[in-house]
Amino acid sequence: MPGQWPLDDSKAVWHALCHVQLQADGELPGTQEVNAVVARLAKRFGRTNGAIRSRIRHMHDTSHAAYAELVNCGARQPASNSAPPPPRPAAPPQTAAGDASGGNLYSALRSFRAKRAQADGVQPYHVVHDSVLQKIADRCPTSLDELKLVNGIGMDKMNTYGSEIVRICQESAPARPAAPPGPLPQGATTTPCSKRKTPATGSGTATGTTVAVAKRPSGWPYASSPAPKPGIP
């Protein structure tokens, strides 16, 4: 009856659709051939097309009871013995230092995703999809605020994987070179002020410079009065 799946019905759905490759989001493709098979099964078992699609998706999910049911009855092999998944798209070619850094980050993110998928018992694309991984590698977000700007990262993934993704990006981010010193002002020198010699005629000092001061004539009686100019009695 609708709402419960007898084993024979599950086996029939599996044998009819197990050859169809699921899409990246885990759904059956919407081709005319697949739609026809889904409609025929739905009519046969008195269910909706959506129920048939949902059932075949659960049969591919290693964490779902429908998967365990088929494996236990021998209708399908465990995931470890099943046919290998289709090859993933290759990373973009590396043509410069920045591209090489992004490629290394993409590899690190895929390694992290594989470990989390194995630990959680789900398919890798359930963690983060390939296209989203590539966007993260291109942006290299080094904070959660930057990661939020990546299209495809919702709050659930932020809360579950955000901190680890940011940590990987921080470790793979290229070091930024220090800014070169600016040009010196016109007439400036790099010689330290402490090494400048004071002229023998006497000196008065100001911050960062040396100023020559003329000596007063010997015997000039008024210390506060200016010395006479040369040629004036």
UniProtKB/TrEMBL annotation:
Residues 83-92 have a biased composition (Pro residues). Pfam families: HRDC. GO terms for molecular function: nucleic acid binding; nucleotide binding. Residues 199-214 have a biased composition (Low complexity). Residues 99-179 form the HRDC domain. It comes from the Eukaryota. Residues 76-102, 173-233 are annotated as: Disordered. InterPro entries: HRDC-like_sf, HRDC_dom, HRDC_dom_sf. This is HRDC domain-containing protein. It comes from Emiliania huxleyi (strain CCMP1516).
